[in-house]
Amino acid sequence: MRSTRRNAQASPAVALRRSMTATVAMLAVLALLTCTWVVATAQRAVALDPFTGYLMAHFTGESTSGEQIYLAHSTDGLNWSDLNNGAPVVVSTVGTRGVRDPAIVRSPQGDRYWIIATDLRIASGTSWSDAANRGSTSLVVWESTNLVDWSEPRLVNVAGGIPSAGNAWAPEAIYDPATGDYVVYWATNAPRDGVTKHRIYYSRTRDFRTFTTAQLYIDRPSSTQGIIDTQIVESPTSVGGYRYYRASADGHITIEGSNSILGTWTTIGNLSHMGISNGTGGGNVVEGPMWMPFNNGTSWALWLDQYATGRGYMPIRSTNLGSTQNFQTVSSYNLGGTRKRHGSILQVTTAERNRVLGRWASTAVSRVQSYNFQDRYLRHANYDVRIDPAVSPAQDGQWRIVPGLAGSGTVSFQSVNHPDHYLRHWDLDLTLARYDGTSTFRSDASFRAVPGLASSSWTSYQSYNFPDRYLRHYGYVLRLDTITDANGRADATFRAVS
Fold it and tell me: Can you give the pLDDT at residue 48?
């Protein structure tokens, strides 16, 4: 007992030390909170930078390379320029090795991005019936910290737990500030209450790696009417009475409003008065509704894919989403050189826009001239690569020298008439090959442009992954080689000309 009383009645010196310790601890906590607030504020500031452009992720159709990820850029939201010279930006190497319906997602802090897409490749010969009933139940996911350097693709089996699920199509994602995570939603064809049709399911995630069990999100009361394409847009100022609006292809293009993503949704109307439907109402039959807030903060575009006529996307515009009567057609727009199929549009800041354009803006067409045979130019012929005079057809000898697929200050040679093909080495031979999305391809197709080995006013191209070897011709055929003499230096020297 005496020992307990001594501990309870500490000396003044001990009490002072305890007080000082508590003060130091409190100051440390305050410092930590201040640091956390500063970091969080800095992160929020990134997201709050003014939006000055738009980035569209899309696919182009059922061609050999059409079911991959393409990007386009716009400054006004209506007139678009294809990026990467109209070639895919990232390519799926997993699942079906094809992707459709990409959604591009930004974190609230603006420090991370994801692309999620349908794992489906109709161009491989898959029928729509097989794709819907016996297709992939996974989504394909890419991740980036800067919008230009993307991870390898990965599969996430979001619908695998849905009984007898046939597929997972048209994924979308939106950040939910109420819970601090993302709601990912997609369409799955599966039996429920004795009826098999497409319904919208959802899952939650914080990192696009771990997902909660799929739950039913939207089911139309009709026993036959399915729903596939749904996309949500946020109206932070609740113009029209709701914070969130969604458009769904369910026979019509149905517009709904809600104040919470997973709460109760109110039907606002459809577009039948504009002669637009998803089939049930006839008229202009469309799909793939794609929202785009204009950067003016006062209006929205809803892009609709006129798939029935093959005319591609058309925009309609509204300044008040609370009534479908507020939508108006837009007559002046330009979608660029490639067909845009179901995707999504991200508003981008100046910093984001500059990064994207710095990597993928269209580049000039060049010919590549040999130093020691100046009447000969680099060309592809039957996917082999050589130097020839009087190249015919001329586009076989035309290239775009673009930022290297491997990054790190490299360049790659993109074919003009086969824009999804690049010059790459294979067993030290040079060939023209379709980009397959792998890191090996990126390395094989990337070179460092250095002062010419035979003349510093020309250029030599050093292999990225075999830096002791250079691009050279030998017997007029291109290969990678070590350079040891004057002939080799001349063979390995080139220049780009218009």
Answer: 59
Cα-Cα-Cα-Cα dihedral sign, residues 218, 224, 230, 236: negative
Within 8 A by CB and 6+ apart from 164, the residues are: 190, 191, 196
Tell me how far apart the alpha carbons of residues 315 and 330 are, in angstroms, rounded to a whole number: 6
* Residue range(s) defining the domain that contains residue 160: 49-360
CB atoms within 10 A of CB 329: 11
Give the count of domains, the chain: 2
HSE, CB side, 13 Å, CA atoms: give it for residue 219: 16
Q: Which helix (H) or strand (E) holds 288?
A: strand 287-293
Tens-digit pLDDT profile for residues 439-463: 999 999 999 999 999 999 999 999 9
pTM of whole model > 0.85?
A: no
Count other Cβ atoms within 10 Å, centred on residue 380.
25
pLDDT band of residue 332 (cuts 50, 70, 90) is very high
User: Please, are residues 73 and 84 in contact by the beta-carbon 8 Å criterion?
Assistant: no
Answer with the one of 306, 340, 360 that is the final residue of a domain: 360
457: Cβ contacts below 8 Å, ≥ 6 apart: 495
Q: Cα(407)–Cα(447) distance, rounded to whole angstroms? A: 10
- Sorted by sequence, the CB contacts under 8 Å of residue 15 that are 6+ apart come out as none
Helices and strands, number each (H, E), in the chain: 6, 34
Backbone angles phi, psi at 393, to 5 degrees: -65, 150
One domain for residues 281 and 356: yes
Q: Is 312 strand, coil or helix?
A: strand
Sign of CA dihedral 359, 363, 368, 371: negative
Q: Please give the mean pLDDT across all residues of the chain.
A: 90
- Cβ 92 vs Cβ 65: under 8 Å: no
469 and 428 in contact (C-beta within 8 Å)?
yes
- CA 450, CA 460: separation in Å to the nearest integer? 5
Residue 4 backbone dihedrals phi, psi, to 5 degrees = -65, -40
Supply the CATH number for residue 140's domain: 2.115.10.20
Half-sphere exposure of 171 (CA within 13 A, CB side): 35
Burial of 346 (0-12, 13-18, 19+ CB in 10 A): buried
Pair 320, 405 in one domain: no
Question: How many degrees, rounded to 5, is the angle at CA 381 between CA 380 and CA 384?
Answer: 70
